[in-house]
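Team,

Forwarding the record for the chain on the shared tracking sheet. I've put the sequence and predicted structure together so nobody has to dig through attachments.
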Amino acid sequence: MYAVIKAGGKEYKVSQGDIIQIEKINGEIGDRVELKNVLMISLGEKIVVGQPYLENVTVIGEIVRHAKGKKILIYKMKKRKNYRRLKGHRQNYTYLKISDISFDNSLNN
């Protein structure tokens, strides 16, 4: 069984026990997080798709750690104008361990 969730503007395919890297969410290490933006769920052979989200389906995860991504350098330049700018960015991430995908029994029918 797996689900497709939306978190931080991106979509992730998750199943129980997976560790995913999403954009930073508030919380301490060990906190439980409920992700309610579930786009799709697979129940063996049956696939249920939401429009856009599924009701009564939540993905429960636990915050494993917070980290920063690799540094990205942004360089701007205009030739012959003596214009040069160098800027850097490091994105903050949260690692979630998916502990459960809970759903209503009405999806089995």
